[in-house]
Amino acid sequence: MPIVEKSSYKTPFLLGNAHIQTIVPSYIRPKEDITYEREPMDTPDGDVIHLDWSRTGSDKLLVINHGLCGHTKRHYVLSLVKAFNEIGWDCLAWNYRGTSAEPNKLLKFTTNDSTDDLSWVVNYAIEHGGYSSVALSGYSMGGNLVALYLAREADSLPEEVVGGAVFCATLDLKACSLALDSTFTRFYEEHFLHKLFDMMIEKNAQFPDQVDLDLLPGIKSFKDFDNAFTAPLCGFKDAEDYWLIASASNYLEKLDRPLLIVNPKNDPFLAGDCFPLEFAQNSEYLYLEMPDSGGHCGFITPNIGKEWWPAYRAKEFIQPLAK
Q: What is the count of structural domains for the chain?
């Protein structure tokens, strides 16, 4: 324990293929009708992070972390907001530096290692919102970031932080990068690289003497991008150093609050220590759930009008944690 032996997620008939599960929901899943209150938050390092609030007047808060190159209006974020608002929780979804619709002030961008950004967001919310319970959720990169924050920063977490639930979390960055650089998954890698290229082009417009766009044609993989841009611009030696430092799988033994990790066995993005079976078997705090399918942040849910399964599962796990 605590491995969740039987997941409640059931794949619809004939829709269990990993790529169908990964791609289709982005096109068919309706976006919930959520109206955010946007607030710019000044950071201690002189930048700004854009916060999107959906409040009910609660003393309980869910902080939501989106995926790589995502934003707070993605369907998977909005589904969580609606689900938790309906049970009386406030929700705060924050936009990463570099991929927000509004430009940041600094050259640096949010990475898998940016627990400082997440810590500032959580502390700001507690200070200004008076919350008694704060839980966290995230998808993909956001899932790794939540796990890294709860584990690596365990000794300094606010007492209001009660735990979290994450989905398709890229806990082992090297293994994930290699998995996405294979023949059958490279089109996902190319999709994200194009978005990352756009980010660097925008950064070059702000900081023309500090971003070398001549490097872009030679970048064919995440490793190339992280060597060319992530490492030098965000303070790492190289891609391997970044992956080692920023992979939450290397810190899970430090967890001291409950964390649910739902990583489907057929997720084409995940590999290696993204499935920490041996550790979970002996952990008091890590709950590992591995549905047979679900793809990457897909989880096609029977009956298109039904609540998306990850939102249901997050509520089921997080609600009992509240003080």
A: 2
CA dihedral 196, 202, 206, 207 (to 10 degrees): 40
1 has pLDDT over 60: no
User: Among the three residues 242, 260, 278, which one is the final residue of a domain in this structure?
Assistant: 242
Round to the nearest angstrom and report the end-to-end CA distance of the chain: 24
Half-sphere exposure of 27 (CA within 13 A, CB side): 5
**Range of the structural domain that residue 19 is part of:** 3-172+247-321
Are 82 and 212 within one domain?
A: no
- 188 and 106 co-located in one domain: no
Domain boundary among 242, 272, 293: 242
Q: In this predicted model, what pLDDT tens digit does every residue of 69-119 receive, in sequence order? A: 999 999 999 999 999 999 999 999 999 999 877 889 999 999 999 999 999
- Give the domain CATH number at 51: 3.40.50.1820
Regarding whether 117 and 11 lie in a shared domain, the answer is yes
What are the tens digits of pLDDT across the range 21-71?
Answer: 999 887 777 778 899 999 999 999 999 999 999 999 999 999 999 999 999
Euclidean distance between CA atoms 158 and 172, whole angstroms: 26
Span 171-190, average pLDDT: 95
Q: What angle do CA 282, 116, 236 make, to 5 degrees?
A: 90
Q: Name which residue leads in pLDDT, 97 or 2.
A: 97
- Looking at this protein, which amino acid is placed at residue 172? D
For 99, the token pair is 């991929």
What DSSP element (H or E) covers 240?
helix 239-246
For residues 81 and 223, membership in a common domain is answered with: no
Q: Which of 217, 216, 220, 241 is nearest to 229 (CA)?
A: 216
To the nearest whole percent, how much of the chain has pLDDT over 70?
Answer: 99
Looking at the structure, tell me whether residues 219 and 284 fall in a common domain.
Answer: no
